[in-house]
Write a structure and sequence with these properties.
The complex is a heterodimer.
Chain A lengths: L4 E3 L2 E4 L5 E6 L6 E7 L6 E7 L2 E5 L7 E4 L6 E5 L8 E8 L5 E2 L3 E5 L1
Chain B lengths: L2 E3 L4 E5 L4 E3 L2 E3 L6 E7 L6 E7 L7 E2 L2 E6 L4 E6 L8 E8 L9 E2 L3 E6 L1
Classes of the chains: A mainly beta, B mainly beta.
Chain lengths: 111, 116
Amino acid sequence: DTGVSQNPRHKITKRGQNVTFRCDPISEHNRLYWYRQTLGQGPEFLTYFQNEAQLEKSRLLSDRFSAERPKGSFSTLEIQRTEQGDSAMYLCASSSTGIAFFGQGTRLTVV
Amino acid sequence: AQTVTQSQPEMSVQEAETVTLSCTYDTSESDYYLFWYKQPPSRQMILVIRQEAYKQQNATENRFSVNFQKAAKSFSLKISDSQLGDAAMYFCAYSLGDFGNEKLTFGTGTRLTIIP
């Protein structure tokens, strides 16, 4: 197992387009988290899952954002009608015992 | 709501010396977990150390140790014998739940530079 994997690593999209990111967690981890990080800031929580159940969503997560974790395995984060303010690094993490292992992130640039 | 504050945006230290990074937090909970994460320029976040609030003993991991002051809500990280590979952004974080496996609340980070 090579850790948490995120794809794509970079995404450039035009304003108004939809984008989808994928996260493959460490296989035995039942918790999966999404965070957003802008330059010079700490990561901000977006949402997290325990197995396939979405347990919490941040108020930061507008209706344009949706996340899924079918069958409790990989997860996808979709942003509809992207805006320039969505430009950020999107980080995924997984855990089973409270130690979160992070992926390398997907850098989104909205032009 | 819980908040985490890191008041040192940047710190530098001479190689082989010791440096302390500061963190304060605010919470009304009595049981929680505190973490220091390191984010090197490659941007993958790595756990440095974890502290359970119910434990009075300060956590240590090799050259890394914490000074946990629960009453003062302070959680500083000491790096001894600094090495070039320690250069990174360091984030203090807070969590609740079993083993601290709920969401992490992060501070704004401290950029640590190691001077050869």
